[in-house]
Amino acid sequence: MSSDSINWDRFHLRRIIRENHGKPIVAIAVHPPSPHMSPPNRENLIATLGGPQYVAPNDIRLTCLTWMPFWPEETDAIIAMGDEKGAVRILSLTRSSELSRLIPDTETPGQVLDVHALRNSAHLLTLHADGVRLWDAFTTTCLDHASFKASRTACAFASHPSTDDIFYLGMRNGDLSTMRIEHLEGTSRLTKGSVLYTASQPIQGIQVSEEHGILAHLVSGKLVLLSDAGDVIKNIPGPKEASLPSLTPQGSHTLIGDQQGALHIISLESGKVDRALRHKRATRAIHASVVMSGGR
């Protein structure tokens, strides 16, 4: 996709939807298009996360979320939410209820830092302070657990855009590493790969564009665009204390929100801000952003 395929000049604030969170919204997810799901169309389903969105008896704080593109019951829309105790709650939109809960087998896994659903199975990857876990969310089975040394705690991960079997990890010590899912007879397991790149500061976010490469978001706000082999293509300055980057569906731009409520549209091709979207009624910090498949 060329850099001018999305006309950012047409973008404007359509409406402000005030969810009854009572706390800042820290994550947002749009249901992905999926060939595995039966109609109706779910591409307009948006989920937001802020404080105790799902009211549990002990009011545990939720930390991250993802829609699941694949689920054996095709007429349902399923969302997975991680919490501060390390568990993942599987919620059904059709039933408006919690279907199940994925509980780590260690006493102190730490909160769920990130959760990622595989595109072609009911498997989930969860990131904790003590490592990465691979789950079968439908059977609530933990298939494997890859642990880390304390000095190499992972902060973020992202999957390869063309396969579910490869994903990237951003570490607290600045390493960007690969990990692979190997499928064996009747089960799957995690295999650690190589270190592609080492930054001088922690990596707090990763996005992967099939056309442009791997985008690492450092704690200082700087973005580093890398090749698949880990070579630096370009360094891109970003706003300080910014939200985590969010790629457009085609991977040509990344979106970063700042503390003043502006959304910066950065071209990965040029490394420059194409446009900053602002509105006088939206002046608070942007914590998360996402572009829908229809260019909204």
Q: How would the global form be characterised?
A: globular
Mean pLDDT: 81
Let me know the number of strands: 22
Number of structural domains = 2
Question: Would you list the SSEs in sequence order as H and E?
Answer: EEEEEEEEEEEEEEEEEEEEEE
Percentage beta strand: 35-45%
Helix content: under 10%
Work out the helix count. 0
Assign the structural class, choosing from mainly alpha, mainly beta, alpha/beta, alpha+beta, or little secondary structure. mainly beta
From the alpha-carbon coordinates, what is the Rg to the nearest angstrom? 19 Å
What low-confidence regions span 5 or more consecutive residues with pLDDT below 50? 54-59
How would the blueprint of this fold be written?
Layout: E1 27-30, E2 46-49, E3 62-67, E4 78-83, E5 88-92, E6 97-102, E7 114-117, E8 123-128, E9 131-136, E10 141-147, E11 154-159, E12 166-171, E13 175-184, E14 187-198, E15 203-209, E16 213-218, E17 223-226, E18 232-236, E19 246-247, E20 253-257, E21 263-267, E22 273-277
Antiparallel strand pairs: 1-2, 3-4, 4-5, 5-6, 7-8, 8-9, 9-10, 11-12, 12-13, 13-14, 15-16, 16-17, 17-18, 19-20, 20-21, 21-22
Plain-language structure description:
There is one protein chain. It contains no helices and 22 strands. With 296 residues, the protein is mainly β. It folds into two domains: 20-34 and 42-51 and 60-147, Methylamine Dehydrogenase, Chain H (7 Propeller), CATH 2.130.10.10; 149-295, 7 Propeller (Methylamine Dehydrogenase, Chain H), CATH 2.130.10.10. The strands form six sheets. The protein has a four-stranded antiparallel sheet with strand order 3-4-5-6, with no helix packed on it. Strands 7-8-9-10 form a four-stranded antiparallel sheet, with no helix packed on it. The chain has a four-stranded antiparallel sheet with strand order 11-12-13-14, with no helix packed on it. This is Quinon protein alcohol dehydrogenase-like superfamily. InterPro entries: WD40/YVTN_repeat-like_dom_sf, WD40_repeat_dom_sf.
